[in-house]
Structures are given as structure tokens and as C-alpha cells.
Design brief:
By secondary structure, this protein is of the alpha/beta class. The chain contains 13 helices and 14 strands. Bound molecules: pyridoxal-5'-phosphate.
């Protein structure tokens, strides 16, 4: 049995809701589960509007379009994140600018964000990395001062809080992912949230082939996109959302087991939680002293012991996908923290089905691997 790096927690409730959707959500009842999921989600988050979508990537794409970001514009994104945070910037023809991260939270650093602003900067996409949150007060203040829109990528952070306020509710727009690896899953799926009714209205048109809601004559006003979630996925999401406190508690429990097991290991930094933050620890992550060797070696050794882990995101500016991109060279020079952490971090198994025993086994094996590396 391999120990999985990520995975959901599905109960009878989810199965019952999906079964109900499969049997009833057609004809006059089509759309009922997406509507329920959206209203429950916006209520949970304390925002005015939520739009269910096929992915977080599509939510970020629509966010940029709704804000009018396009060719010639620049959008700032942390150098360390999943490429889905930045790819939509290219979809709309704008230029991604990669800013450095904070050494403790591993999220966008407000001063690095500010240093990257030019007269072409239209938006910033702070990312709530691994369930943690950046200093949203500082980021929002910089954004306001320079008239830059904030799109919060909360894909990994449902349930996290900064000064009591939920992740995803900070910017003009927030985006969530319900991919199978995320804390709340619909298999594949996403949500866009906003308090701005003009953005909301624009997103509804953009995600339905340029058709206004309620247009029963199919008179498309523009060529746009088809980004919708099905009732079957929404039923799964609704059941998961009704269990959100349980899911978040489980994530925090898993982290606390790791913290306990690894407390006495030298040269090892775990996910940080500042006094302003409630971290939901989407991925328990260790950053290791360089004397332990590279992340690649540690990951390989753990995989040989039936433990699946992942590398800490390599800086976007180091990826082949952005080779030759003029911003990459600048970021490689500038983003010291991204490059230091990016080479030494490992995501440990954080699936919601892990128990205490599994975490103990992972930590025992990790200690073993680390002891071996240091004595070599
Ligand atoms: C998973 C993830 C996404 C993309 O989510 P999809 O639903 O797969 O499109 C975006 N940003 C971050 C930070 C993620 O972890």
C-alpha cells in the first residue's frame, strides 16, 4: 500500500447527494444543485456572489477578462505557485511578472509586489500557498495605492483566515479549486467569488458563450467561453461544503501530528502560522537544510519506501514553460527566497484519509532518510 500525497474524504452524505442529483436534476430541476452550491458557498464565505465553474484555472481566466486585462498589461504573481495561477495571464495576452515570496509564510511578499509595479500593472494574483495566507492588509494597501486590482488565488486555502476573514474574500475577485487533491473536492471544479455586481454580471455572460442569463432566444452578444459546472459535481461540492469544518479540522489535525513527530529534527522548517493567520495546511511541507541534500534525492528515497511526496513548487521563472520569457531572467536575478526555498522543500503526504499511524510511519522513514543523507 502506497501512502498517497493528497486525496479527499468522501462519506455517505456525498454519495447520497450525487445519487439524488443523478436521479432528479434534469428537466425543470436542471441547475438546482449548482444554484444551491453557489448560494451556500457565497453565504459560507460572506460574499455577495459565487459562480460555479469547471476549474480554478477558468475562474482566474474569467477574472482577468472581467477586469479588462489584456495585451500590453502586466499582472504580478508570486514566483512560487502552481502554474495555473499564472497561465491565464498568458491566455488574455498579458505579461506575467514574477515577484518574490516571504520566507516564513511562503506567500507573496508585499514589498516585493510593490517593487514589481510599473505603469502597465493592472492586477496582482496573491496565492494562499499550501493553505497559508500572505499579509493581506499589506498587499491590499499596496494594491489600493497603485490602483491595482486584487485577484486572490485561494485554490489551496478554503477555510483559512487572515485576521478572522476567510481566504478568497479579500480581493475584487477570489478563485477556488475543487480538484480531487484539494481540501474540498468536486472531482474537477472551481468557484469565482466577488462582491462586485458588475463583475458578477460580466462573468455570467463570459462563461456562457456570450449569452445573457435568461436569453431564451440564443442571441449571443459576443464570442466568449463555455465554463460551467454540472449538477452532479455541484451535488458533491454541496455535501463537502456542509462538512467543511470537519474537513478543515482533519487537515489541521494531520499537520499537528507531523509537527509533534518532527519537533526535534534539526534543520527542518514546517508550514508557518502567524498570530494573524488560521492555516488549513493543504499540504504539510518541510523545507530542509541544504546539508540534507536536494529535494529530488529526498523525494526519490521516500518514494522507494512507498511514500508519495511532491517537490515544493519550483519557481515559475525556472520552468521550461517560461524559458526565454523576458521576465524570467529578471526574476531569477531578483527572487532569492523563491530560489532558496524552491530547491529545499518537500510536500509530505497530506491526504484526508491519513491516520496517526500513517503519519508516524512517514516521519520515521523521513528521519531515516535524513540521517542517511547527513552521514554521506
Ligand atoms: C490547484 C490550483 C489551481 C488550479 O486549480 P484547477 O481547479 O486545477 O484549475 C490554481 N492555483 C493554485 C495555487 C492551485 O493549487
Amino acid at each position: 500500500m502506497r501512502i498517497p500525497v493528497a486525496g479527499p474524504w468522501i462519506t455517505e452524505k456525498e454519495i447520497a447527494y450525487v445519487t439524488e442529483a443523478a436521479s432528479t436534476a434534469w428537466y425543470s430541476k436542471a441547475g438546482t444543485f449548482t444554484a444551491r452550491f453557489e448560494s451556500s458557498f457565497s453565504e459560507y464565505l460572506g460574499v455577495n456572489h459565487a459562480v460555479s465553474l469547471p476549474s480554478c484555472t477558468s475562474a482566474l481566466h474569467l477574472s482577468l477578462l472581467a477586469l479588462g486585462v489584456g495585451p500590453g498589461d502586466e499582472v504580478i504573481v508570486p514566483d512560487v505557485t502552481w502554474i495555473a495561477s499564472s497561465a491565464p495571464i498568458s491566455y488574455v495576452g498579458a505579461t506575467p511578472v514574477f515577484a518574490d515570496i516571504d520566507p516564513l509564510s511562503w506567500c507573496l511578499a508585499a514589498d516585493c509586489f510593490e517593487a514589481c509595479i510599473t505603469e502597465r500593472t493592472k492586477a496582482v494574483i496573491p496565492v494562499d500557498l499550501y493553505g497559508n495566507m500572505p499579509d493581506m492588509d499589506a498587499i491590499t494597501a499596496v494594491a489600493r495605492a497603485h490602483n491595482v486590482a486584487v485577484i486572490e488565488d485561494a485554490a489551496e486555502a478554503i477555510g483559512s483566515r487572515f485576521k478572522g476573514k476567510l481566504a478568497g474574500s479579500f480581493g475584487e475577485i477570489g478563485a477556488f479549486s475543487f480538484h480531487g487533491s484539494k481540501t474540498l473536492t468536486t472531482g474537477e471544479g472551481g468557484m469565482l467569488v466577488t462582491n462586485d455586481s458588475a463583475i458578477y454580471a460580466r462573468v455570467l455572460v463570459l462563461r456562457d458563450h456570450g449569452r445573457r442569463p435568461g436569453d431564451t432566444m440564443f442571441m449571443n452578444g459576443e464570442v466568449a467561453f463555455k465554463y460551467k459546472m454540472s449538477d452532479l459535481q455541484a451535488a458533491l461540492g454541496l455535501a463537502q461544503l456542509e462538512r467543511i469544518d470537519e474537513l478543515v479540522s482533519r487537515k489541521r489535525k494531520i499537520f499537528s501530528w507531523y509537527a509533534e513527530e518532527l519537533a526535534d529534527v534539526d534543520g527542518l522548517q514546517l508550514n508557518y502560522q502567524s498570530s494573524d493567520t488560521f492555516n488549513t495546511y493543504w499540504m504539510v511541507t518541510v523545507v530542509l537544510d541544504p546539508s540534507y541534500g536536494s529535494k529530488e534525492r529526498i523525494i526519490r528515497a521516500l518514494r522507494e519506501r512507498s511514500i508519495d511526496c511532491r517537490p515544493f513548487f519550483s519557481p515559475l521563472s525556472s520552468l521550461p514553460a517560461y524559458a526565454g520569457h523576458p521576465e524570467s531572467a529578471r526574476a531569477r536575478e531578483r527572487n532569492r527566497v523563491s530560489y532558496e526555498l524552491g530547491s529545499q522543500g518537500v510536500n509530505l503526504p497530506s491526504a484526508l484519509n491519513l491516520d496517526r499511524e500513517a503519519v508516524h510511519f512517514v516521519c520515521e522513514q523521513l528521519r531515516n532518510v535524513l540521517d542517511g543523507q547527513r552521514t554521506q
